[in-house]
Amino acid sequence: MPDKAYVITGPTSGFGRRTALELAEHGTVVLVGRDAAKLDDVRRRIEGGGGAALTVRCDLSDPAGARRAAARIVELGLPIAGVLNNAGIFPNRPGTNALGWDIAYATNHLGPFVFTEALVPHLQDGTQVVFVVSAVEDPERGAATVSGFRGGRYVSAEASSRGEWKPGGSKLPGADAYATSKQCNLATVLAFARETPRLRFNAIEPGFAPGTNLGRDAGPLLRLLAKYVLSPVAPLVKHWTNPGTAARVITRILTDESDATGVYYDEKGRPMRGSAQVHDPAFNARVVAETRALLETAHV
Ligand SMILES: NC(=O)c1ccc[n+]([C@@H]2O[C@H](COP(=O)([O-])OP(=O)(O)OC[C@H]3O[C@@H](n4cnc5c(N)ncnc54)[C@H](OP(=O)(O)O)[C@@H]3O)[C@@H](O)[C@H]2O)c1
Asked: What's the confidence (pLDDT) of residue 227?
């Protein structure tokens, strides 16, 4: 039995892959993702370095599948010290999951929400649960508005599942869905931290990393530019990062043993503020209540 185990979603690319390799220095890593071959590749890489890893298949766009994956993890009986909700997408055209729900909202918020709620009763006191969120949820964030974001556009969980956002949003394809889903992640962290003080719930804005696969829908030229020109200089630019740097900060937070809960960290691991809306306890409690009601209606 290992001393500690860390659960990570989306360990097959970008921030998640580098963080999974870092976490292997701290305990057994439970790799949660949708692609068996990619998961095995990361597992072999960890084992090759003398670490231990297990894989659990899970498509987070399917909330019922997320619940089953959480149940499989509980069955493993590992001493879980940390859970990292990292997986996410930023599609640039609308799409839906099998339930007809907005694909970005389902993958980024609803799946991770179900996954976390299903794990919570089985986590030992003090377990660290971290969500990778994004500052684009804040309409006052200059660096995001300059790029065309208009902050989270939450109307209700049900409206979000239908791909409906508060009017006056972004002209950037997919931006309102992405920003709203990330705002709901942050709202979940802040509300869960209040609801369940025996665990720790924290969030991190990892910084903008042009070299990950998050922009996989962008054209090939833009992707080449992002990967080979922008990514190498990213750590020199304010609020930018690369997967290696971000992985070290994320790992530091996930393995931190302080009592801190309900904290939102920036790309350097310093506490930061999100939007005024997300810090309003009435708003973040509403997001959680409406998410639960939506999932219940769908019998997830
Ligand atoms: N890159 C940035 O600038 C930036 C900034 C702020 C926040 N973030 C956040 O950072 C997190 C990681 O993003 P990244 O930039 O590292 O992107 P990435 O390279 O595209 O990695 C995303 C990960 O999520 C997994 N994933 C996608 N859809 C999934 C699904 N339906 N079920 C299970 N896993 C799924 C991917 O799996 P596959 O390999 O199978 O596709 C991959 O492992 C996201 O939550 C993102 O919102 C990114």
From this structure: 87
Q: Indicate the Cα dihedral angle 232, 243, 103, 111, nearest 10°.
A: -170
Single pTM value for the model: 0.98
Q: With a 6 A CB cut-off, is 151 part of the ligand 1 pocket?
A: no
pLDDT at 221 over 90: no
pLDDT of 1 > 60? The answer is no
- Return d(Cα 190, Cα 30) in angstroms, integer: 25
Reply yes or no on whether the pLDDT at 2 is more than 70.
no
Q: Does ligand 1 have an atom closer than 6 angstroms to the CB of 131?
A: no
Q: Identify the H or E element spanning 178.
A: helix 175-195
The closest-lying atom of ligand 1 relative to the alpha carbon of residue 16 is: 16
**Ligand 1 centroid from CA 16, angstroms:** 7
CATH of 5-297, picked from 3.10.450.350, 3.40.50.720, 3.90.550.10, 3.30.70.2470, is 3.40.50.720
Q: Is the Cβ atom of 42 under 6 angstroms away from ligand 1?
A: no
